[in-house]
Design brief:
By secondary structure, the chain is an alpha+beta fold. The chain is 38% helix and 19% strand. It has a four-stranded mixed sheet. Helix 1 runs antiparallel to helix 3. It starts with a helix and ends with a strand.
């Protein structure tokens, strides 16, 4: 695959992920809220630590210390991020979400063809963000 084609695919993926973030962060009245834990242990499993290390080594957010990709409902992957950053600002979440999902697709071979769910847990193990990014 040529560099131009690879760059074009990466740009297209980033646009799709960004669009999903922009759509997925809003909650309409009556919209179903995705079930899931509201807290987690602050210690990440070894595989999550290793994935986060590869992500940071590739230039990812230094506050991310754990990344897991799990099987979610209906075959839609669930991405679980553990971060040392307690900032709940939407801009922080959008930047982190875009960065992690781009790494997962381009470097780790994860497919988000059906979309994804994402949970971000802060330094105390509390849920900071939860999003359903299905098309």
């Amino acid at each position: 695959m040529g560099d131009a084609l690879r760059q074009g695919a990466s740009t297209a993926l980033t646009a799709v992920v960004t669009a999903a973030v922009l759509v997925g962060c809003t909650e309409e009245p009556g919209e179903q809220v995705m079930p899931g834990p509201t807290s987690t242990a602050t210690a990440a499993p070894q595989e999550a630590l290793a994935l986060a290390e590869r992500y940071r080594a590739a230039g990812g957010d230094p506050d991310v210390y754990g990344i897991q990709v799990e099987d979610g409902p209906e075959g839609v992957p669930r991405v679980v991020i553990r971060t040392r950053n307690a900032d709940q600002a939407d801009a922080v979440f959008r930047r982190q979400n875009t960065s992690v999902t781009a790494h997962l697709t381009t470097k780790e071979g994860v497919s988000f063809e059906k979309g994804y769910f994402i949970d971000v847990f802060g330094p105390d193990g509390g849920l900071i963000h939860r999003m359903d990014a299905r098309p």
